[in-house]
Amino acid sequence: MSRTTPLLLFSCFCLLAGDMLYGYDTISFGGMLANPGFIARFAPYHAAAKTHVFDSLHTSLLSSMPFIGKFIGCFLAGPAIERVGHRMVFWLLSAVSIIGVLIEITSASGNQGRYAQFLVGRIIVYASIGMVEVNITTYQAEIVPAPLRGLVVVSMQLFLTAGGVIATGINKAFANTHTDAGWQTVTGIQFLFPFLIATFTYFIPNSPRWLLSKDREDEATTALRRLRSPDEVAAGNCEAEISAIKEALQENMHKGSWRALVQGTNLRRTALVIVYYFFQQTTGQAFVSTYQTTFYKTNGFAAEAFTYPIITTCLGMLAVVPAMYLVDTLGRRATLLQSYVFQALWLFILAGLGSKTVRTATQDNAIVASFMLFAVFYNLGSASIPYLLGAEIPNAALREKTQAIGASWNVVWAFVTNFIIPYMINSIHFKVGWVFGGISALALVFTFFFLPETKALALEEIDALFSVSFNPFIKTDIPLTTVQRRIGYFEGEDDKDATKFVETA
Hints:
By secondary structure, this protein is mostly helical. The chain has helices at residues 6-13, 17-32, 36-42, 56-64, 66-84, 86-105, 115-143, 146-173, 180-188, 192-201, 208-213, 217-227, 230-234, 237-249, 265-282, 285-288, 292-298, 308-329, 332-354, 361-382, 385-392, 399-428, 432-450, 459-465, 482-490; strands at residues 45-46, 51-52, 476-479, 499-502. α7 crosses α22 (399-428). The radius of gyration is 23 Å and the shape is globular.
């Protein structure tokens, strides 16, 4: 039974302009740190060198402090969605983003520029990005049928890397601009993304599951009818699906408390979300995204410091395309396992070759290739699947709060990694690869032993999955209630048995 309609596709993908904002900001700022106009405006002047230079402290502050805003945005997004719904939060985050970009652009003043003002602007922009991460993933997970949920939620990484590709091209265009026009143009382009989000939001419905949590069943049915095909509407399937979801939710109809996150089976689910958001930030992504231009310039690759990032981000974006397919065929678990294996491999190669005192041209090329191949395998799985797990693993009563906690924890580690990487690059150079490669290997082991497979399961069926223990060496046999089987049918599954087997490795 086909569940794909134009409005469903539009509702799932149009607001990913918010993820383009995140990708654009991350990569564009990495290039701005090496932009002569930006350096002249905001970097301290060193009399001995007779030039403006960003030291490790100023670089770390500009890169890490914005994550305070992202933490606030992530943490507040969950309660805000519960209270006013996804559409209202989309409008709110658009306004916040526009204010932040405006503060950044107007921070040029006199000969030096207002460093603190630019930093405040970045913090505000990142507050909107934090809201984007929680709002988009929970909205997508609640409106899309189970067989397509992985593809849809993982697509956020495609848009994120697309934003990065745009940023690398613009960075290169202004790489030799010594005036404010360069960095202000790079920054000002960010106005486009919140404008698109605010416009698109007018045309999408609220999540039917959110409307049910507010006891607005008629509106939930109307919203679902807009998202489903005319044949399904005519057959009365929308009313039946709403009835089945409402019955399945039962005790989880209304939103739960913060304490419920660590009670019963919710503790295991919350822990998994938190752990994977930790791995997303600590397996090396900031080293290869935000700091790749700076790293190239300071480690013998200055001539291509703005060119290599373009290649890297393009390859990363291409890697998301098979990831969108693999996550719903191989599954979340197998895709992550493959991703972590090769992430560790390429980082170890980078560290090993880079530690050589004397290197050949071939070895230098291998180092650059390792950077690029890490980006490929990071985007193949571990970049986006944590967002998917955060959206589908929690139960309905705690989805927004779990995603908010997980994303906030993700921000804490983004802050830590972005703050310490400049110091790591300056002190241990290529040995940074041993650190992040080791964490990738740890993530591989954790995934094998603790992550169950959730592909093709309706959100309510995942509740049954976590009601039983997980063993990585056998298939997980989950008992389904009559209502859960009905939800599985409406979500596109044909399995009518009283149990369902979930594959492991």
